[in-house]
Amino acid sequence: MSESEQEHSDRHKYEFRKVIEELKDYRGSGTQLVTIYVPPDRLISDVMTHVTQEHSEASNIKSKQTRTSVQDALKSIKDRLKYYDTKPPENGMVLFSGAINSGGGRSDMITRVLESPPQPIQSFRYHCDSEFLTEPLEEMLADKGLFGLVVLDRREANVGWLRGKRVDPVKSATSLVPGKQKKGGQSAQRFARLRLEAIDNFYQEVAGMANDLFVPERHEIDGILVGGPSPTKDEFLDGDYLHHELQDTVLGKFDVAYTDESGLKDLVDNASEALADQEIVEDKRHMDEFFENLNTGEKATYGFEQTRRNLIMGSVDRLLISEDLRSDVVVYECPNGHEEYEVIDARHSTPDHECSECGDAASVEAREDAIEHLMEIAGQRGTETKFISTDFEKGEQLLDAFGGIAGILRYSTGV
Fold first, then answer.
1. In 3-state terms, what secondary structure has residue 151?
2. Is the pTM of this model over 0.70?
3. Do the bridges between strand 93-103 and strand 106-115 make them parallel or antiparallel, or are there none, so unpaired?
């Protein structure tokens, strides 16, 4: 995938994620919210027939309010389907319609159509409930990549998953391996033999945990990473303790100082080369470069206003946006023609504003999604946009310390 295709995909996913979050918040008074998943090979005429049939069967619903709401939703969906030819768009589409609670005992009818989701819809599905069905779309947006993680020494071990960008510890074990015996004689030989048996038993226990966790997912797993001090990890892998179907999926062994849950994260960090194609490593690379430039005081920008100015100048090479940022930008203008921007939480109402230059009350000229506002400028200036996960420390810092917006500059601007 080219950089331009990747950027389009990232923007497409962001727009989908935004709509899904909105849909997840809606509630109906009864089972009156309709969701229809349409695969790309389903004829629109077949969907119309199904909707017509459901509309007819809805007349049997006992509750008049629910019956009316469901039929209104289905009629709205039929009206939307008339805009399509014989087949749905690429990858299919999902239709949402229903009367949602708007407070004070009132309800509003809404209809949304999501075209061309990130992955093809696999099967036709009709769903009617008090909530819209969004889980299949959420699964499409989930980070890809599934790796098994094992860290061990002769004292303890931890086993878990790397799912996309998230490290999930699952199982742990503590060994009964005794410390080294320094006394000589026959007792020392016997002690050494018992110690080797205890080590072997512990390795078998660790392998049992890994096998139980990884073997059921062996057809989905992208690889296994093993970490720990030498020679422990070498003994474990060379001893063929892992299930034979897992041994060929081991991507490598890596030196890790700790073997508790934090060791799983260290393992991912130390295996960055093996995970070079995974988004978590890519996100970390961008954030490491940003902090390096920030520390030198050269090619880094952060915050909405500063980053926006640099974007307009064309000096931003990469725009870094937190995946968890949900903000709007409000454009104010005072009677004297001064224009100012303010970023607010997308869920909050627009606040009053006083012009910082003349002190007069300013009126709202526009309000729009802050990310879309910045991405529009970035697209015009040939700037890449990268969405950064909050599932690692520096990703969290981007959201919490820098307002979720930063950039790596092409050259130092002093802005």
1. strand
2. no
3. antiparallel
